Model the fold of this input.
Amino acid sequence: MKDKKFWQVVGLILLVFFVYWLAGAPYFITDRVVMFFSIFILGSILLYNIRYAERGGEVYLRPIPGLKAVEEAVGRSTEMGRPVLYVPGIQDMDQVETVAGVVVLGHVAKMTAQYETNLNVPVARSIVMKAAREACRESYTVEGRPDMFNEDMVHYLTDDQFAYAAGVNGIMNREKPAACLYMGKFYAESLILAETGNSIGAIQIAGTASQAQIPFFVTACDYTLIGEEFFAASAYLSQKPELVGGVRGQDMIKLTVIASIIFSILMMALYESTGLGFDVTNFLTIR
Amino acid sequence: MLWKRQIPILIVAVIGSITLFGWFINEPSIKVFVEDDATQWYNILASFAAILGALNLIKIQVQKVLYQKPGWGYSSIAVFGFVFSIIAGFFIKGVDVEWGAHVSSEGTLFKWMFDYIFSPMSATMFSLLAFFVASASYRAFRIRNFEATLLLVSGIIIMIGRVPVGGVISSWFVMYLIVLCAGIYVNSWKKDLKITFVFVLVGISLVTIGGVLMGWPIDQPGVFYLPSIQEWIYYYPNVAGARAIMIGIGLGIFATSIRYILGIERSYIGE
Done:
């Protein structure tokens, strides 16, 4: 609550919106004002916590075994003299999970550069190939090993889901990577990949927000980053205050959501039993 | 630096903000951009990028064949498939139909390739899932700890409860089973045969008396009827867990998107 500048900006935005609202809110879809304010409040919570971390505030990050194991997996590959296989999902860069997967790839590439281990990144989309290459190139340069970077470490296989799965399975069986990392958006191919990785004895770490694939990864992989853990991976691996603060912000938003759910249940019960208050379900429905 | 840092961040911030706030603005041109134009721009860019992907694929595979690297035989098949697809797609139709329509017209080389090579191979990969599900389920269902046991029991209930045979298993039979299983637990806990015997005897007697009094209805008490139990597991604990994960995923996506729009997260440009 000590961030004076933050509160001044929030107050100013609210004041501007209030004046805009009094002026009849031209061009604004007024039915969506609840959603607009929800985004504003949640975004503000997030930004407040990011600023809190940037100003040196203490932030505790719960240890996530899957992320701790990433370095262990790269180390194991180094010891065994085998490559690390990184699969950034089968979707394009318009999916936030793919973007998160490419971001984590940057951190993994830093580790493989440090440990001088081969990295193999087969991709299913051309744009992902370009983005992943840039992420790897930057990581190898930052680690002072641009000589180790080879453009073909990130290579395109195919856009087709099962052809891609077949291609990656082939790489696994031929190259026998010691570590397989699956970070991105997956569909039915998740279990085909993870089971093949399991059969070759690789240490496997998966991270996805594809809800239907989480059980498959949990079953077949050694570690799985479930949903939000996957999005927190970048913060956890980089330890940058602005990203770590974002993770704290997410937790605060979660608390707000839990409080809203409890409040809505109570309000709804009150409304339905006594007629007091208002229909909170109708109020919160997106139009 | 400007081209590789500031401009990409600016593009992400501007397009991200328009996409986010376009949802709240009643202006047709913004609406069209958000819902249609932006996607089309992406598709156009992706189409150009597809050429890069194809070139990369053929480069790597040809290199493998030329230098006879391990597994070069597979690469030669990949190169052959690549060339064959291009020929079937751009040069040889096989029958007299319009260019473009030949990809879906019967009798063309491209359609033949799709129906008799691509589709069966995709189906083969997909069907592998059945075997992988079996091996993964075996590992997941092995009784190692309390959670695995819970998963095993829930899995069995769901599987039996959702098939017709589950509906003909009487809830009284399930109750007898529970008494016997509880007897095993009591025996391993107390390690006294007398106590186990009394426990099982009392349990079986109570179930039998209850059955006689109620007339042995197959689906009563509902709490022991497999289709009812599976429905409860499926709609309550399962949905509760799934929604909790969904909320977490939603918040993760929201926080990540905001960080990108505001330029806080810059890892995607290598920072």
